[in-house]
Design brief:
Helix content: 40-55%
Strand order of the largest sheet: 2-1-3-4
Strand content: 5-15%
Largest sheet: 4 strands, parallel
Structural class: alpha/beta
Distance between the termini: 65 Å
Shape: globular
Order of helices and strands: HEHEHEHEHHEHEHEHEH
Length: 287
């Protein structure tokens, strides 16, 4: 058993090396390979693709349908990290806290940049001293993430700094437009909404709404707490229950039926992140 534990890391390393060698063979005849960057989740790719254009390939460490808090990166994901010059972390995802040390040990040349550095993050929704990782609910926070990644790229690749900054200006303009669109939709919106996991804290903060999660600090509520949460939702006048694929979807749908709430399925971890923001805003419009 001890021998097996010692040999397992070597086996993983051998698999990674084999994947790297086979990938090198696959690129033959396709022209020069573009340099690579790696991000944690799909919405970051949406931003980074807009910033770098055709200059870089952007890889995503966590698939859209995976839970960031429990995901174990595949060998292909490790290969993507190996190929990348920068890994843009979110700096607050649970999986990253356990993984960053491993990444540093296995890829000492890889530069790791926290895309959320210096941004106003929420710290009271997922337990004491835990930062709320669901930053994609805030268009303004996302704009800050884009600025952070742009500046890091300008330092790493000054020859293309003008292109990065020009592309980011266009991206910032589109994000400003999205924020204005959301505010217009919410000008006569319901002031409260229900959700199983507190994933829309940033959205509620930015647009002065009341989020009513059925979990307590991001965890399963005790029976008494759960009953009080249901009473709060009933008293709030909320009309919508947002359903997420990774957070109690079936239980949330059952509670929505019991409370006579409209179910709206969302996924802020999707690549087309702006479409999800528009869906949330439209669902809360009080026509």
């Amino acid at each position: 058993m001890r021998m097996a534990r010692r040999l397992f890391p070597l086996f993983c390393l051998s698999c990674l090396l084999l994947l790297i060698v086979s990938s090198c063979g696959e690129s033959g005849g396709r022209g020069p390979v573009k340099p690579s960057l790696c991000v944690s989740v799909a919405p970051q790719k949406y931003l980074l693709d807009a910033i770098v254009g055709d200059l870089y390939d952007v890889h995503v460490l966590i698939p859209e349908n995976a839970d960031p808090e429990s995901y174990d990166p595949s060998m292909r994901a490790m290969k993507d990290l190996y190929d990348s010059s920068i890994f843009f972390s979110l700096g607050n995802e649970g999986f990253e806290k356990a993984l960053i040390a491993k990444i540093k040990a296995n890829f000492p040349e890889l530069r790791i940049v926290s895309a959320t550095a210096g941004l106003p993050l929420i710290t009271d929704t997922h337990g004491e001293e835990s930062t709320d990782p669901h930053v994609w609910g805030s268009v303004k926070t996302v704009a800050g993430i884009a600025r952070n990644m742009t500046e890091a790229l300008c330092l790493a690749d000054p020859g293309h700094a003008e292109t990065f900054r020009r592309n980011n200006m266009k991206l910032q303009a589109s994000l400003d437009s999205l924020d204005r669109e959301v505010r217009a939709k919410l000008s006569h919106a319901d002031g409260a909404f229900a959700i199983w996991h507190p994933s829309l804290s940033y959205f509620a903060r930015d647009y002065s709404l009341r989020q009513l999660p059925l979990e307590v600090e991001g965890k399963e509520a005790a029976p008494g707490q759960f009953s009080r949460r249901l009473d709060d939702i009933r008293a709030s006048g909320a009309k919508v229950m947002f359903i997420e694929p990774l957070h109690g979807a079936e239980r949330a749908e059952a509670m929505a039926e019991e409370l006579n709430l409209k179910c709206v399925k969302i996924n802020l971890g999707a690549l087309d992140w702006p479409a999800q923001i528009r869906l949330i805003a439209s669902s809360l419009q009080n026509d």
